[in-house]
Design brief:
By secondary structure, this protein is mainly α. About 40% of the residues lie in helices and about 0% in strands. The longest helix is centred in the middle third of the chain and has 13 residues.
Length: about 110
């Protein structure tokens, strides 16, 4: 009781309710304009779980890797008996990574969609 008298009271705020309907989707579009949404992807997984293959395939499907390059990787990987690695080779660019069949570097890649 002694401390309660010396404590300052918090003033109450007046709350006003909206009378019109609020369209959150439209508000988001209005605020964003024509800007694209940004999506950051982090791929995590056990060794040999296909992380590089997944991302290489995604980059190919999005058009960031040409058919010509993929054909080259397909031929090269087939020649060394590692055809299943053709998409991983989009990201695994060093000779050592390709020989050992593992990614030894952290990679970042930027792509844009329509």
């Amino acid at each position: 009781r002694l401390g309660a008298e010396s404590a300052a009271s918090t003033p109450l705020k007046q709350v006003t309710m909206r009378k019109e309907k609020f369209d959150a989707t439209q508000k988001f579009k209005d605020d964003r304009g024509k800007q694209k949404e940004v999506l950051n992807l982090v791929v995590v997984g056990h060794v040999d779980s296909g992380k590089s293959t997944l991302m290489g395939h995604l980059l190919f499907k999005l058009g960031n890797v040409s058919q010509k390059i993929m054909h080259k990787y397909e031929k090269e990987s087939k020649k060394v008996g590692k055809q299943s690695f053709m998409y991983a080779w989009v990201l695994d660019e060093t000779e050592e990574e390709r020989e050992r069949g593992i990614t030894m570097d952290v990679g970042t890649n930027k792509f844009e969609t329509e």
